[in-house]
Design brief:
This protein is of the alpha/beta class. The protein is 65% helix and 10% strand. The chain has a 6-stranded mixed beta sheet with strand order 6-9-10-3-11-12, sandwiched between helices.
């Protein structure tokens, strides 16, 4: 099964390489030129030796011609080898570039469930470290594999011209090297695969510990995290050592076999000279060719070792690339009026654990809908379904009487403005972070949106205002959230989603933001998820969720009058400790 996986991965890599078949053909041609000329040179040396075989029998004129030919061929061979290496470099880095680009595009298109199931560090390791390992393996393979194969074929032709019997013996013994190399390579591949997977696990842990350094320090988790790292590090050491151990056996094992063959050829050649069927120059040529013939097997064994590592990394990359992408609708949703129909929707992240069942709701354009309930009841899940971050298991969701599963995700999400509790700041200027949804916005529009979102107060104090370059640590959590609110203020799409949008903002600023939200939500269908119930008292509809079901529905006054779950939830937030 492992062999099948290995060969499948190799076929996939070759399919990508086939896009550059012109470079590949040229590389093979220059490799052939280089090898043939390299192998022709020993023939000339043999002629030179035969011209000086005895005292007083040196043909200096013929010797000079031969040496001139050797010098010319050495120069041509060097140029051909240089061109071949340049072509191989071009193929290798373009192939890795293409695979890496496909991997990044795939990450953008895979379902969020796949991202949830894999750590960020593991995915980053696949795209960066595994792609680099694939690059190293391909580069070594191209530089040595083509030349090695051509050298073996051409060497045999030259050897047959000198001695058929000795050449046949060498050919018969050749499979021994292959058997030894294959036996070891099969074991090294599994070790390299474990090494690659463990490296991804280690990268994930490092990302986790560094990205959450404050939490680690606050809870005194340093020693525990170090123990986790040491455990992974020891496994990585073990797999790496085993991989290197098995792979390092290939070269000396094949060299031993080839050396035995070389010794037998030498002995047989010596007897041939005594029998008069071979000259000293001929034996010199034959031994040179025997060495040249066996040398590629040593090189190819090293290539095979490196390719095992490269293919193990490529397998992880193709696992990502070939992951099924999200299904997308063909229609385009123009600017929506904001009517939303949720029809008998059921959904669960894990099939065995039900979350939302037979959920239905009809929302008219311009309605302000608040969703409240205890943690884990399905509030944010509803937002994920509305935005098609996840697809429902059963039922349908419609916008303006059109199923969201028949329109493209891009056109659907273009109609929503979304502010989440989790903030995202990219490396770039303040302007770049605000105009994400409206790249052609003018500075006047950006400043107006910033003032309405109350982010202009801190932006104008930054060193270069809108031109200040930000990174993840440049702003406080509250400032990041204000910047995210400003993005939505700038775009003002027909529908809004506010998921704990003011959770990191102080009470005074929150009151100002609520005023801006009230202005922004006027005439727009809005979905508000909030734990602080004081922020949703003005909602047209309040949906009270519990265990994936709507258990109460109405405005604030109606729900309070029912004296039910919402009333208890509301009073629990404002009850005074006696």
């Amino acid at each position: 099964m492992k062999g099948k996986t290995n060969s499948d991965t190799l076929r996939k890599v070759l399919k990508v390489i086939s896009s550059y078949h012109i470079f590949l053909i040229l590389s093979i041609i220059f490799a052939a030129v280089s090898v043939i000329l390299q192998l022709y040179i020993p023939l000339l040396f043999g002629d030179a030796i035969d011209n000086i075989i005895a005292e007083g029998k040196v043909d200096f004129a013929a010797l000079g011609v031969v040496l001139s030919k050797i010098l010319t061929l050495v120069v041509i061979t060097s140029i051909a080898t240089w061109i071949m290496n340049m072509l191989n470099n071009t193929i290798t880095y373009r192939v890795v570039r293409d695979i890496r680009s496909r991997a990044i595009r795939q990450i953008q298109g895979v379902p969020l469930g796949f991202i949830d199931q894999h750590s960020v560090g593991d995915i980053v390791s696949r795209v960066i470290a595994d792609a680099d390992q694939l690059s190293d393996g391909l580069l070594l393979g191209f530089n040595q594999l083509f030349s090695g194969i051509i050298m073996i074929i051409v060497t045999l032709i030259f050897m047959f011209s000198k001695s058929v019997a000795i050449t046949l013996f060498v050919v018969i013994m050749t499979p021994v090297s292959f058997i030894v190399a294959k036996f070891i390579a099969q074991r090294s591949f599994s070790m390299f695969k474990l090494q690659s997977e463990t490296r991804g696990e280690q990268t994930a842990l490092i990302d986790e510990m560094i990205g959450n350094a404050k939490v680690v320090k606050a809870f005194g988790y340093e020693d525990d995290s170090s123990e986790r790292f040491n455990e992974i590090n020891l496994r990585l050491q073990k797999y790496s050592q085993n991989a290197v151990f098995y792979s390092s056996l290939v070269n000396p094992s094949t060299r031993f076999v080839n050396s035995v063959i070389y010794a037998i050829v030498t002995l047989a050649g010596a007897f041939s000279i005594l029998g008069g069927s071979l000259t000293v120059g001929g034996l010199s040529v034959l031994l040179n060719y025997a060495n040249q013939y066996m040398k590629p097997f040593n090189d190819i064994s090293a290539v095979i070792t490196e390719l095992q590592n490269a293919l193990a990394c490529a397998a992880r990359l193709f696992e990502l690339i070939e992951k099924e992408r999200e299904n997308d609708g063909n229609a385009e949703l123009d600017e929506a009026a904001g009517e939303v129909d949720i029809e008998n929707v059921s959904f669960s992240y894990v099939k065995e654990k039900k979350l939302i069942e037979d959920f239905s709701l009809k929302i008219k354009p311009g309605t302000r809908v608040a969703i409240v309930g205890p943690t884990g009841c399905g509030k944010t899940t509803m937002i994920n379904l509305l935005m098609r971050f996840y697809d429902v298991d059963k039922g349908d969701i419609k916008v303006d009487e059109e199923s969201i599963y028949e329109v493209s995700r891009h056109s659907l999400r273009r109609n929503y403005g979304m502010v989440l509790q989790d903030t995202w700041i990219k490396n770039g200027t303040v302007r770049d972070n605000i105009n994400v949804g409206k790249p052609d916005a003018t500075d006047e529009e950006i400043i107006k949106a910033a003032k309405e979102a109350h982010s202009w107060e801190f932006i104008k104090r930054l060193p270069k205002k809108l031109d200040t370059v930000l990174n993840e640590d440049s702003l406080s959590q509250g400032q990041k959230q204000l910047l995210c609110i400003t993005r939505v203020m700038l775009c003002l799409p027909p529908m809004l989603i506010l998921d704990e949008a003011t959770s990191s903002i102080d009470t005074r600023t929150e009151l100002l933001i609520q005023e801006a939200f009230d202005k922004m939500m006027k005439g727009r269908t809005s979905f508000i998820v909030a734990h602080r119930l004081s922020t949703i008292r003005n909602a047209d509809i309040i949906l009270v969720m519990k265990d994936g079901h709507i258990i109460e529905q109405g405005n604030h006054e109606e729900l309070m009058a029912k004296n039910g779950f919402y009333t208890n939830l509301y009073n629990s937030q404002f009850a005074r400790v006696s």
